[in-house]
Amino acid sequence: MDFFPSRTLAFYMAKMFLIRIFSVVALLVLVLMSLDLLGQSGKILAFQGNGEAELWTYVSLRAPQIIAFALPFSVLLGTLITLATLNQNSEVVSMKAGGLSAHQILAPLIVTSLLVAISSFLFNETVVAPATATLSAWEKVEFGPIPRESNVKTNVWVKDGNNLVNAKVVAGRGKNVVLRDITVFSRSENDLRSLLHADEGRYTGQSWTITGVTRFDVATGTEQKQDQLTIGETLRPDQFTLSSVNAEGLTLPQLKTAIDDLKAAGRPTMSLEASMWHKISGPLSAMLMPLLGAVAAFGLARSGQLFLRAVIGMALGFAFFVADNFSLAMGNIGAYPPFLAAWAPFILFFLIGETVLVRTEE
C-alpha cells in the first residue's frame, strides 16, 4: 500500500508528465486559436471602428475557453506520450523489476493529474466563466461596444400575451432590473398594430416605466414621441433576468444562485443542475486519464505491440469524452437525473480502467 516507495522516482515521473501536458496544451491552443480567429476575424472587423485591438480582445476572451476545452485531451495525450516513452526506454521494466506494482507506477501521474484538475477548476471559476460571459454579451451585440455593468444580459426576448418585448441590454437583478434599448411589438392575433421603442425601462413594483418613447402606428403610418409611458403590468423582472441562463458563463456560486431563483419562479432547472455538477466532475476527469492510458505503459516494447497499446489507451480516453457528452446531453433534456448525468461516466470509466489494470497487470 506504499504508493510512493521512491520520492526521486515520483518527482521524475511527475515532472516528465507535467512537461508533456503543457506542451500538448500549448500546441492545441495555438492551432485551435488560429483557426477560430480566422473564422471570426471577418465578423469582428465588420463592425465599424474595430481593428487590431478588438482582435486581441477576442483572443484574450476566447483563449481561456480553448484552454479549458483542450486540457482534458492534453492530459490524456500527455499520459500516453509519457507512458509510451517510459515503456520504450525499458524504464517500466526496471520499475517492475525493482518491485513496483502497476498502481505504484501510476501513482505519481494520478496525483499530478489531481493537481491539474484542481488548477483547472480554479481556472474555470476565476477566468473562463467571466471571459465566457463577456464574450457571449459581445457576440450578441455583433462585436460592438461591450456592456460594462455586472449581471448584464443582452438581446433578451420576452412574450407578454400577444406582444413581444425585446431589450438589447438587461442589467441588475430582482426589482432593480434596468432595461435599455427596448422595442415592444404590439400585436393583435398575428397582425402587427404598433411598434414602440424606448431608451430605458425600470420596474416600479407593479409595472414598467419606460422613458424616451417613440411609438409608430402601423395602420396610420404616424409616429408619436412621449417622455415616458407605463407598460407591462403582467411582465415580471425574472422573465428578463432568467430568460436565458448560460451555465458556462457563471461561476459555481452564481449558477447555484440562478438555479435557486429559477426554482422560486417555478421554472425547470434540471439541465442547469447537471451543468452545475459537471463543473466539478469535468475538471476531475483529468484524474482518469492516467488510469485509462495505463495500457500503453505495460507490455514489452520489443514485442511490437506498443503502438497498439497506445491506440487502445487513446480509444478508452476518447470513449470517456463521448460518454460524458452523451450523458450530459441526456441530463439537459431530463432523461437522466442531474447528479447521474454528471458523475455516471466518471464512475463507469474509473471502474473500467481499474478492471483493465488489475486483470492485465496486477
Summarize the structure.
The chain is α+β, with helices and mostly antiparallel strands. It is built from 10 helices and 6 strands; from the N terminus they run H-H-H-H-E-E-E-E-E-E-H-H-H-H-H-H. The radius of gyration is 27 Å and the shape is elongated.
Explained architecture:
The protein is an alpha+beta fold. It folds into two domains: 7-142 and 270-361, no CATH class; 153-241, no CATH class. The chain is built from ten helices and six strands, in the order H-H-H-H-E-E-E-E-E-E-H-H-H-H-H-H. Helix 2 (52-88) runs antiparallel to helix 4 and helix 4 (102-140) packs across helix 7 (270-284). The two termini are 13 Å apart. The model has no long low-confidence stretch (mean pLDDT 87).
Descriptive keywords:
2 domains, six-stranded antiparallel β-sheet, elongated, alpha+beta, 362 residues, 10 helices
Form type: elongated
Query: Segments where pLDDT lies below 50 for 5+ residues?
Result: none
Give the termini separation: 13 Å
What would you call the structural class? alpha+beta
Residues in helices, as a percent range: 55-70%
Task: Spell out the helices and strands N to C.
Answer: HHHHEEEEEEHHHHHH
Mind describing the biggest β-sheet?
6 strands, antiparallel
Number of discrete helical segments: 10
Number of strands: 6
- Proportion of residues in β-strands: 15-25%
Give average pLDDT, whole number. 87
Largest sheet strand order: 1-2-3-4-5-6
The tally of structural domains comes to: 2
Q: What is the CA-based Rg, rounded?
A: 27 Å
Protein name: LPS export ABC transporter permease LptG
Membrane topology: Multi-pass membrane protein
Organism: Parasphingorhabdus halotolerans
GO cellular component, one term: ATP-binding cassette (ABC) transporter complex
